[in-house]
Design a protein that fits this description.
- With 219 residues, the protein is mainly alpha-helical.
- It has nine helices and no strands.
- Helix 1 runs antiparallel to helix 4, helix 1 crosses helix 5 and helix 4 packs antiparallel against helix 6.
- The chain is globular and about 55 Å long.
- The termini are far apart.
Length: 219
């Protein structure tokens, strides 16, 4: 292994750690919002936590993103937006019957995760600016690439296909029954939906365009 490959592996692991932290806070936002809306299911199952271990999904948090980092056929080794690194954590359990306003609260809970990723992206850009002041080019790169990744997670999760967060909003607008919706969210069907979405070129191009233009708002 030469120094270049070693550097790529280190970079990949750094962005993987960033991904895990972003996913953890994404799920924490779902759990916190659910708790505030009257449902303690997530809290009672230990999901109202920023401990990454309680949110890890073996495929979405471990196998899938690591494959995208280390296997060229899945996108390369750097973990940046150009290579389109995506992952997911265990869905936060929500009992609709416990929500005070089921339709409104379901939408709020669903949007809480993407909103958290958007806020984190803003904070990471701010940290990158601080790193510029201190002349740390490596830190600037890490913060900006992680901000990009956070925005990818934000906007990707807004796509209205099960089991992504945007599908909860779509379900409420079209009036789909919970029984039919949850059947679509179960593996392996849900995993197939995500893989198809990731591999549609238009989805990648649209996400890259949205993310780059969003980052351009914070020069």
């Amino acid at each position: 292994m030469d120094s270049g490959q070693a550097g790529q592996i280190i970079d990949g692991l750094i962005y993987y750690i960033g991904l895990v932290l972003l996913l953890t806070l994404h799920e924490f936002a779902h759990a916190w919002t659910s708790h505030k809306c009257g449902d303690d299911t997530a809290r009672l199952q230990g999901r109202l936590s920023i401990n990454p271990i309680v949110h890890i999904d073996p495929i979405g948090t471990v196998l899938f993103p690591l494959a995208m980092i280390f296997l060229p056929m899945f996108g390369g080794s750097t973990g940046t937006i150009t290579n389109f690194m995506i992952g997911w954590a265990k869905p936060v359990p929500v009992s609709i019957a416990n929500l005070r306003h089921p339709v409104r609260d379901d939408i709020l809970i669903a949007l809480a995760g993407p909103a958290m990723n958007f806020v984190l992206a803003v904070l990471l850009v701010g940290l990158a600016r601080v790193a510029v002041i201190f002349g740390s080019d490596e830190a600037v790169t890490v913060f900006l690439n992680t901000a990009q990744l956070s925005l990818v997670l934000c906007f990707f999760n807004l796509i209205p296909i099960p089991p992504l967060d945007g599908s909860h909003v779509a379900r409420n607008f079209v009036g789909m029954s919970w029984e039919a919706y949850w059947r679509l969210c179960q593996p392996p069907l849900s995993l197939i939906f995500v893989i198809i979405a990731i591999n549609i070129p238009g989805v990648r191009y649209a996400l890259i365009w949205i993310v780059e233009n969003t980052l351009a708002l914070w020069p």
